[in-house]
Structures are given as structure tokens and as C-alpha cells.
Amino acid sequence: MKNMLRMRIAVICIMGVVQAMAQASPRQGSETPLRIMCVGDSITAGYTDNPKWTVPFEFGYRRGLYQRLIQAGYRFQFVGESPEPRDGLSGLHGNTPTLDLRAQDQDHHRGYGGWGTQKVLGGIGAWVAKDSPDLVLLMIGINDGGSVNARTNLEEIARTIFRVKPAVSLIIAQITPMAHFSQRIADYNQYIRDTLVPRLVAEGRKVTTVDQYRNLLKDGKIDATLFSNHINHPDAKAYDQMAQTWFEGITGLYPLEGTCIRNGSSVSLNIAPNQVQAVTADGLRKSETDLSKEMIQKSNE
């Protein structure tokens, strides 16, 4: 009987936090928009088969990311001052995008066609100082071909970002492939995943990685049909898959969750349709019943 009472109290506590979450504003209760700076090359800008532009321009992955963030309830602002591809340096697209980010004042980014890590390194410090991002989405290196020098440059790009704005969050993408397999790009991505990001995390930086390479694969192999220019630019389907990958990375850093502090330990609750789940401090997802049992067990300790 005593345990049943405690179980009921635990469940009531959970439901109380869930109700409080329903009243909380997006992005952990903050009314300040999350400033997101997308940094990279032509893929960040959203190029397709330019200069012909027979494949319509739809802002690349930024369109799908915008849609997902809006639908999820985030308050955010894309920042950056790249004029591409509107400047016409690689031809002017003739279509009107189905969702025009310009009308939403969200066509802001730092994507520059043909740029590699060295050129981004030359500009990143000034960009961060001027654009003042809270979060940087960084994907660069395909124009370097995954060279060894690109690794050195990439690390210095990340360190420059943190020197200019130490509290910023950074997501470094494992870059998309070329239409044909490159071992150097595969090795570059392994360096990002297994060396660079863990090194920065160990130094206390708020940084993570996402795998954009997989979005141009089918059955584990590069799918040439997903390239709009048959070289390196994704098509609409691949760009949308990339948007989902970025979105998942962002929600990992900025979850729309309520947080309950109990005995110095943070327990965050997610609301899913017809289900209540919890994410504990160690990142393990547990059901309502399991969480209740854990709370009761701790109360007996």
C-alpha cells in the first residue's frame, strides 16, 4: 500500500511537470529568438544545377529547416550576409521559390559558392562578431576534397568561433559526398566525428556533429540520382533530408522541454502524442512507469 501511494505521487508529479510544459514558451521559456548562422559553401547557399538552373532554387536545406523549426514552435532568426545566389555570380534562377524565405526575413546565411576551409577561416571571426549567432551550423570541406589541410583549417575555424563568442553552440556536419566516392572525404568525416568534435567537447565546448553524408546514400552507397548537378549539389529530396538532420541536431542542443530539478539532478520531460516519456540526465529515455519506479526507489534511499 505504501509503495502504491508513492507510485501515485510520482505519476502526479510527472503529470504536473507536463502541464507546466504546456504553458511554457518555446526554447526553454526564452522570448529571445535563437540566432542561427548557417556557414558553408554553395550547398549552404542552396545551389542546384547552376548556371542553367533547370532544377528550381528552393533555398537548399534552409527551407526545410525553417519549416521544421516553425512547426516545432521555435523562435529563431537566421543570420548572415551572403548575397548568394541572388547576386547572379553563377547565373540567376528564374523560378519563384514555393516558400520564399526572403518574405519571412529569413534568407540570411554565410554560404559562398566554391569556397573551401581556407576562405571560410579568413572570414569566420568577423562573421561571428557581426552576426552574433547563438548557434552555428558549419558544413565546409567538400571543395577541399577532404584534404589534410582542410582538417587543420576546420579545427581553427571552430576555435575562432569559440574565441570570438565562447558561449556559442556549434554543430559541425560530416560533409556530403561527391557523386562519386572519395576516400579522402570519408576520412575527413571520420576525423570530424572521432577526433575533432570529441577533442572540443573534452575542452568544455558546446559542440556536436551530425552526419549529412548519409543523406546522399541509398543502401549504403552514394546515390547519383540525388545530385541536381551530377557533381556535388543535392537535389530537393536530399536537401530536405539534410534539413531533417540539422533539425535533429538542433533539438538535441535546444530541446523544447520543461525541466524539473530533483535532489540536484535534472529530469526533462518530453510530450509525445498519447505518450509521456522522460529523458534523464544521462540521456536515457524512460517510460512514465519506469521513471516513477526510479523516483520511488531513490526516495527510499
Describe the model.
- This protein has 301 residues and is an alpha/beta fold.
- It folds into 2 domains: 2-26 and 257-300; 34-253, SGNH hydrolase (Rossmann fold, 3-Layer(aba) Sandwich), CATH 3.40.50.1110.
- The protein is built from 8 helices and 12 strands.
- The chain has helices at 2-23, 42-45, 61-72, 117-131, 148-164, 183-202, 236-253, 288-300; strands at 34-40, 76-79, 110-111, 135-139, 169-174, 207-211, 217-218, 221-222, 258-262, 265-272, 275-279, 285-287.
- The strands form 3 sheets. Strands 1, 2, 3, 4, 5 and 6 form a 6-stranded parallel β-sheet that branches. Strands 9-10-11-12 form a 4-stranded antiparallel β-sheet. Strands 7-8 form a two-stranded antiparallel sheet.
- Helix 4 runs parallel beside helix 5.
- The radius of gyration is 22 Å and the shape is globular.
- The two termini are 18 Å apart.
- The model is unreliable at 2-29 and 258-301 (pLDDT under 50).
